[in-house]
Specification:
The structure holds 2 protein chains of 2 kinds. Chain A is of the alpha+beta class. Chain A is built from 3 helices and 3 strands. By secondary structure, chain B is mostly helical. In chain B, α2 packs antiparallel against α4. Chain B starts with 12 loop residues before the first strand and ends in a 63-residue tail after the last helix. Classes of the chains: A alpha+beta, B mainly alpha. At the A-B interface, β1, α1, α2, α3 and β3 of A face α2, α3, β4, β6 and β8 of B. Chain A: One of its GO terms (biological process) is protein targeting to membrane. Chain A: InterPro entries: Golgin_A_7/ERF4 (IPR019383), Ras_palmitoyltransferase (IPR051371).
């Protein structure tokens, strides 16, 4: 493992972050909206242009924010499910799931076109419980 | 390869091979279930015999419909994922903890634990986010850690022993509808139980005789009467909370108590009670983030093991890329195995999602042959050039098959 426990009597933590991974944290400045920070992590400096990175994360954010927006179709879907005693969810896919599915496809596309050629790989945030976007540096 | 539910580290109980999750101790839930089912059965079997004949057959039918709705809401509340935030991977934990100010020993020799707070400003109000050392994540605003279930739950309301689960973002609407429907149902059973006794006493000309003849009515009336006080009270309390877009946890902590501190505004409040009600009860439903039915692939630690082994340069990189791309394809995505896959099969599934690539993305990436599609607002390709024979991107219909048809955890 790349991490180590802090030494006793040490005045500072000696936990080492993984060398081959960069993490993009959630951005909570707009509330509990599903949004990731567009700041380029230090490990990716020089590996990917900042404007490309910002655009990629921005596009992902757009899809995720749309997932959490209460639109008329979302309300109708929920009302319908309620009227069936929520049994409709057994066979129905919710708008949120459709949005997360489109985010997965977008991440795959970006891995193919943007990150793959730069020896980077973006992990779908759904695989990380929507906590972070993990970007693996495939070659140092 | 184990499934994720088999390696779940919390204290919740996982049932039906990862399809359901509840608290470990369900004894009070069984009591709730027994009270509802037994009273309903007694009411439908005994009281409704006279009521159906004397009043209308719709009385037992309505009772049955309400009973089924109450049960659906209760079972959904109990066995749903309340909004558990999956624990951070070891690599994430190492990254976050390396940034935290470590434990300190000050001049007096007092031990100061590591600082694990950070400030975030939301709509003009400062929120303190806490780092959860158990779950290895920065707790989102409104999330809280349930010590009974040992999970961080999003929009944590409370842990309810009566339903045998935490009440959080995903199952709050089921909990609330359970309360409301149960209030209405208790009232219905009580009223018609009394009506049944009154009708019987009119026929027998003696109220005590009627009670002796139909003791189950007395029992159901008593159960309903005592339940109403608590259920209706709780229902009313939660109605008030919903209209103010606050959770029980926030109400107890006084997070948005503007009477005491006028600057404690609630940035999640949409302005009016009806809008808040609509959003909380009928707003978007987050799917379960636990993905219990998928394979546990050692989430990231395999990669750090591989690349730590500095001896195998390209071999480790190749293995790492395979490990990365071999993510379980089941839930949301169709997998493209490698960049050179020129078959239309994998590309054919890239569909309308590509249209959202914004115009600000450069049409050409420097240094390599792969170009990115830039689309105009109306979906037609702008200046982007497709390379590698993958020319179906723009015109493709959304023809994606879901890789897994199993609709997993509720």
């Amino acid at each position: 493992m790349s991490s180590s426990k802090p030494l006793p009597n040490s005045s500072s933590a000696t936990i080492l972050p993984p060398a081959n991974k960069a993490f993009v944290p959630r951005d909570y400045s707009h509330g509990t909206e599903l949004r990731f920070s567009t700041e380029l992590p230090a490990k990716l400096q020089g590996r990917i242009p900042e404007e490309v990175f910002t655009a990629v994360i921005g596009n992902i954010n757009q899809l995720l924010i749309a997932a959490e927006t209460g639109s008329a179709s979302v309300y109708l879907e929920s009302c319908f499910a309620c009227l069936t005693g929520y049994l409709a969810y057994i066979c129905m896919e919710t708008q949120y799931e459709k949005c997360l599915r489109s985010v997965s496809r977008l991440v795959e596309e970006y891995n193919r076109t943007v990150f793959g050629p730069r020896n980077l790989s973006m992990i779908d945030p759904s695989e990380r419980g929507l906590r972070v976007i993990e970007i693996v540096l495939l070659r140092p | 390869m184990p499934k994720r539910w088999e390696v779940y580290p919390g204290k919740s109980q996982v049932l039906f091979s990862g399809r359901c999750i509840s608290a470990k101790n369900l004894s009070v839930f069984y009591l709730t279930l027994a009270l509802i089912v037994i009273s309903s059965c007694l009411f439908l079997a005994f009281d409704c015999r006279l009521l159906a004949v004397t009043l209308s057959p719709s009385v037992p039918v309505l009772a049955a419909v309400q009973f089924i709705f109450v049960l659906c809401c209760l079972l959904r509340t109990t066995f749903s994922d309340p909004g558990i935030i999956p624990r951070g991977t070891p690599d994430e934990a190492a990254w976050i903890e390396s940034q935290l100010e470590g434990p300190q020993v000050d001049r007096d020799g007092n031990y100061r634990p590591p600082v694990r707070l950070k400030d975030v400003q939301i709509s003009g109000r400062v929120f303190k986010l806490k780092y959860c050392f158990t779950c290895k994540l920065w707790r989102p605003p409104r999330a809280s850690h349930c010590s009974t279930c040992d999970n961080c739950v999003d929009r944590f309301d409370h842990h309810c022993p009566w339903v045998g689960n935490c009440v959080g973002r995903r199952n709050y609407r089921y909990f609330y509808l359970f309360l409301i429907s149960l209030s209405v149902y208790c009232l219905y059973v009580m009223v018609f139980g009394i009506v049944n006794l009154v009708l019987l006493s009119n026929m027998r000309k003696d109220f005590l005789m009627a009670m002796k003849e139909s003791p189950t009515s007395v029992l159901t009336i008593l159960v309903a009467f005592f339940s109403i006080w608590s259920v209706v009270g709780l229902g009313g309390f939660h109605t008030m909370l919903i209209c103010r877009e606050t959770s029980t946890n926030e109400d107890i902590k006084g997070s948005f108590n503007q009477r005491r501190h006028p600057d404690l505004i609630n940035p999640f409040d949409q302005g009016n009670g009806l809008a808040n009600c609509c959003y909380v009860l009928f707003g978007p439903v987050t799917p379960s983030l636990l993905n219990f039915r998928e394979d546990e692939i050692g989430l990231g630690s395999s990669i750090s093991l591989v690349t730590n082994n500095g001896r195998n340069g390209t071999a480790s990189a190749a293995a790492a890329s395979t490990a990365v791309t071999a993510t379980p394809a089941v839930r949301y995505s169709n997998l493209t195995r490698n960049n050179n896959d020129a078959t239309s099969n994998s590309v054919g599934h890239v569909n309308n999602s590509v249209q959202v690539i914004s115009e600000s993305l450069p049409a050409q990436l420097p240094g390599d042959g792969n170009d990115v599609i830039v689309k105009n607002g109306n979906g037609t390709p702008a200046d982007g050039v497709i390379s590698g024979g993958t020319d179906t991107v723009g015109a493709q219909n959304s023809n994606t098959q879901s890789a897994s048809s199993v609709h997993c955890i509720v």
